[in-house]
Amino acid sequence: MRSFVFAFACSLLVGPIGGCSGSIETADTSGGTMKGVVTYSGPLPCSEDGHVVGDAVIALYSTDALPPPTGFGLDAHKIAVVSGDVLFAQVTDQIPVNPDGSRACPAPGPSVQVSAVWNVDGMDAGVYQARAWFDYDGGWRASSVVADMVSKGDIAGGAISNVANMLAGDLPQYVNIEIGTIGQDGRYEMPETGFVRQDVDVALGLPIPTNRPYFHISSMRRGGDANGVPSPTLSPTNEDLAMPSDLRLYDASTLRVHESLYWLQLQTGVPESESVVAMQPPYVFQLGDPLMVQRYDVNRDGIIDAYDHITGTSLPVAALGPVVRLMKARDDKSNRWLGTQTAPLVLMNLVVIAEGMTGLTDLLSATDYVDPVPNGAITGFIRPTAVCLEDAKDPNSKTVIVTPHVSDSQDPSNQVIGDEEAMRVDTAEQLGRSLAGVKIVYGCLVPGKFGISAVYPATGQTWRVPNESGVCLPGESKNGDACGSRKMLESQSRAFEIGPAVDPSYCQAQRKALSEPDPIRDYCLTASERAKYIDGTLWGGAPSPL
């Protein structure tokens, strides 16, 4: 199975797109400099209006903030862009051109190999990895969340030590690139005269076979009631997408727990009523492909086997991708919920099942998913368990697993976390955290809005709802279903909510029972949430006496 792990969530552009004056221009000449050669091996590019379509994009990530699925980095530290005109200057005479300037693309043929120099200035001291790709269709835009990532047909790569093995199907081994010198405290620092790292060579050669995992929430179901009877499936509005922070499962046994869980159905693309708008500017979604479901390397050991199961169980309940997560949104007072809260980072992993499956029992025999299987929709079960990362950039910082109840409501022997040590080990492996810093705490979940993201483990391609296509941005005026002249996509506006508790007094009692230092208070809450946590109003209800 060929897999290529990288992703790009880009926010800072340091070179021009489409310029012809050189391989890269940079405005900042302070700090560190990185330079090298980018080499492309692949099909000839397309042309349009007398220029090559697309650019080579080199995204430089700090090793303590790598992008999904390797890490939780949201932005590249710097981005270098080599224009297509410069990269393919050696083979200009081979690139097809239409007399009227319309887009002309080559017929299938042999690959070409071309190279160009690249550089970027203004880097901070630290250790970096370079992810890179050639934007074959010219659709990449650094400033747009819905177009800031590699897409189907792009030619990917990076600064990699095992290029030949990667092209044969192995996972890439990214080179760690140092900028600066190590100071007395063991940290990297920038010399007064600056620092230049030369010969950072980047290889591009692997075609990306999939589009991003575009999705919308087509239906949801609330968990079972006190008698274990689930609610009817419904087509949710934003108000329906909520789960109480003190949810107690009726049956927590591994093979029946899905009957008590909330779940979301993620359908590929957007609703048919939005598809025409979604495929046109300014969005240009690449719709039409199904979601690709397959098993993935949960414990990051390079192979897919029985150890790659859902967290917290010793049973071989296969973990399927795309990886679907709820990530607590940053409260920017705008009700858009576009940004992810990073200090602390709070997430919930969903258990994914494929079309035709009804529960976790089907995952015991998911042997057909070693290779990708197309699905029109997937279902994600939401376990009432959150993970708080004190510092997502520091794997040795505290990791707190929070769940409201020890056992289900019908049988004290049915524990919500059946194997605590397995849960700690699995969480550490899956999130790349130090096992020594992982702690399990029984307390109510942190209320708030959560974005919903789907990530292809093999490529790192990500889609997140809500996104900018579903909301009005600063400076845009809302007019019905439009933001100025731009029509919104309502399906892309939805955020999930961990809401108030059914019984706030239970949450208050759990808080008081925790010993000092309190891990929920210290590692799961923002400063504004701590005051509400201490007086007991975080989950609704009246303040409680200390």
What does this structure look like?
- With 546 residues, the protein is mostly beta strands.
- The protein contains seven helices and 31 strands.
- It has helices at residues 84-87, 163-167, 272-279, 420-431, 504-513, 519-523, 527-535; strands spanning 32-42, 47-48, 51-52, 55-62, 78-83, 112-123, 126-134, 155-158, 177-179, 181-182, 188-189, 195-197, 202-207, 215-221, 242-244, 262-268, 291-295, 320-321, 323-328, 345-353, 373-375, 377-382, 386-389, 399-403, 438-442, 448-455, 462-465, 478-479, 482-483, 486-487, 496-499.
- It is globular and about 75 Å long.
- It starts with 31 loop residues before the first strand and ends in an 11-residue tail after the last helix.
Concise structural overview:
The chain is mostly beta strands and 546 residues long. It has seven helices and 31 strands. It folds into two domains: 176 residues, no CATH class; 321 residues, no CATH class.
Q: How does the major sheet shape up?
A: 12 strands, mixed
Discrete helix count: 7
The end-to-end distance, rounded to whole angstroms, is 57 Å
Model regions low in confidence, pLDDT < 50 over at least 5 residues: 1-29
CA-atom Rg in angstroms: 24 Å
Mean pLDDT across all residues, rounded? 86
Overall number of structural domains: 2
Given the helix and strand composition, which structural class is it?
mainly beta
| Strand coverage percent | 25-35%
Number of strands: 31
The percent of residues in helical segments reads under 10%
Task: Please tell me what the overall shape is.
Answer: globular
